[in-house]
C-alpha cells in the first residue's frame, strides 16, 4: 500500500466514531494498524512482528488460521520467494476504533485490493508495564458489494 492509499476515513472526525479524535490511544492503534498494512512493513519481518502480541492469532481472509510463529515462518528469508507479502496496495475504508476496556481497542475497516474486498477487525491490547499496544487478534472476511449489508 502506498502512503496516498493509506487512509483512516473519519477515524478522527467521524460522527459514527465519536471521541476518537480526543483519545490518543485510539489514534496510536489506528496508526499502528495502518503502518502494518504498508507493503514495505509487510515485507520486513522484524517490522511486522514488532507489533504482534506473543499470543497473536488470526483468522485470515483465506480461512487459514495463523499465530505469531506461523507469520514469522512465512515471512522468513527462506520462504520469501514463495510469497509476496503485501505487494498489492489495498484501499482502506470505513475504519472505526472503539475502546472496549482501558487496555483493549477494537478496530473495524474494509480493504479493497482491486480483486477482493474484505471486512476486517482487530483487537489491540496494551501491555502492562511497557504500555505498548500490540495486535492480539485479527480477522478478515471476504465479501462482495452484493452481499454487503453494513
What topology emerges from the helices and strands here?
Blueprint: H1 24-36, H2 39-42, H3 45-49, E1 52-59, E2 65-67, H4 68-75, E3 91-101, E4 104-112, E5 117-126, E6 133-143
Parallel strand pairs: 1-6
Antiparallel strand pairs: 1-2, 3-4, 4-5, 5-6
What does this structure look like?
With 150 residues, the chain is of the alpha+beta class. Helix content is 20%, strand content 35%. It has four helices and six strands, in the order αααββαββββ. It has helices at 24-36, 39-42, 45-49, 68-75, and strands spanning 52-59, 65-67, 91-101, 104-112, 117-126, 133-143. The protein has a six-stranded mixed sheet with strand order 2-1-6-5-4-3. A hairpin with a 4-residue loop joins strand 4 (104-112) and strand 5. The two termini are 24 Å apart.
Amino acid at each position: 500500500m502506498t502512503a496516498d492509499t493509506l487512509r483512516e476515513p473519519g477515524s478522527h472526525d467521524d460522527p459514527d466514531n465519536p471521541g476518537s479524535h480526543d483519545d490518543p490511544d485510539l489514534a496510536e492503534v489506528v496508526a499502528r494498524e495502518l503502518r502494518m498494512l504498508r507493503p514495505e512493513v509487510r515485507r520486513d519481518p522484524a517490522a511486522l512482528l514488532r507489533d504482534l502480541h506473543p499470543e497473536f492469532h488470526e483468522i485470515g481472509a483465506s480461512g487459514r488460521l495463523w499465530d505469531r510463529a506461523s507469520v514469522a515462518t512465512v515471512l522468513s528469508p527462506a520462504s520469501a520467494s514463495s510469497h509476496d507479502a503485501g505487494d498489492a496496495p489495498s484501499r482502506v475504508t470505513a475504519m472505526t476504533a472503539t475502546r472496549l476496556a482501558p487496555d483493549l481497542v477494537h478496530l473495524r475497516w474494509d480493504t479493497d485490493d482491486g480483486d477482493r474486498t474484505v471486512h476486517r477487525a482487530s483487537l489491540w491490547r496494551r501491555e502492562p508495564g511497557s504500555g505498548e499496544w500490540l495486535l492480539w487478534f485479527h480477522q478478515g472476511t471476504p465479501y462482495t458489494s452484493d452481499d454487503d449489508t453494513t
